Every structure is written in structure tokens, then in C-alpha cells.
Amino acid sequence: VQLVEPGGGLVQPAGSLRLSCAASVFPFTSYPMSWYRHAPGQERELVATITSAGGRGNYADSVKHRFTISRDNPKNTVYLQMNNLKPEDTAVYYCHTVYRGTWGQGTQVTVSS
């Protein structure tokens, strides 16, 4: 099972960024997918979750109406579209599946002017 996450980086406040997570060797279409984040000195936070079929996601209050989780099942990929980014969104972002409790390697997102 492998989750690969390219796509982090540095972005200015109020900017946008899209993260992706590509899954392999894994029945992707049968499982919900989640994005978490971990900022220095803080606990890991569940950011968003999407069901196996897609559709509306569930979000942490801190990102609601700014972030959108989606998935492309034929491509075995889950996305996190992040808009109106704030400095407090700075963290390492991880995708996760409950299938064998697998985590991606994490990607750094830094929001700073």
C-alpha cells in the first residue's frame, strides 16, 4: 500500500493550493480517504474526509468553506483544494486511509508573505 503526495509549497496569505494523493496497491474505491495536518507544537488535526463514492466531504471547523476534498476513483487519487489560505494553515499535510492504517509521506504547506 502506498500513498504519494506531491504538491505542497509556499503560498502567500489568501492564496490557493491543491494537494494530491495518489494511491497504489490498494482497493482505493472501497475506502473513505482523509487529509490530516500537523503543525509544530500542535496536535495532529483531521482536516477533511470523503466517502468511498465521493460527494460532499466532512471538514474541520477551521477549514470549512475554504477547503474542498474530492476524489477521482479511476485515477486512484484524492485531492485537497485549499483556498483563502491563512498563516495558521501552515503544517505538514498527510493523506490517510484506514486500509492497514496507511499514511502518506506528508507534504509541507507554508503560508507566508
Structural features, described:
The chain is mostly beta strands. Helices cover 0% and strands 48% of the residues. The chain has no helices and eleven strands. The strands form two sheets. Strands 2, 4, 5, 6, 9, 10 and 11 form a seven-stranded mixed β-sheet that branches.
The oligomerization state is: single chain
Euclidean distance between termini CA atoms: 37 Å
Categorize the overall geometry.
Answer: globular
Count the beta strands: 11
Which percent bin holds the helix content?
A: under 10%
Mean pLDDT: 95
Q: Residue ranges: pLDDT <50 for 5 or more in a row? A: none
Q: What features would you highlight for this structure?
A:
single chain; 113 residues; mainly beta; four-stranded antiparallel β-sheet; 0% helix
Please give a quick description of this structure:
The chain has 113 residues and is an all-beta fold.
Give the arrangement of secondary structure elements.
Blueprint: E1 2-4, E2 9-11, E3 17-24, E4 33-38, E5 45-50, E6 58-59, E7 67-72, E8 77-82, E9 91-97, E10 102-103, E11 107-111
Parallel strand pairs: 2-11
Antiparallel strand pairs: 1-3, 3-8, 4-5, 4-9, 5-6, 7-8, 9-10, 9-11
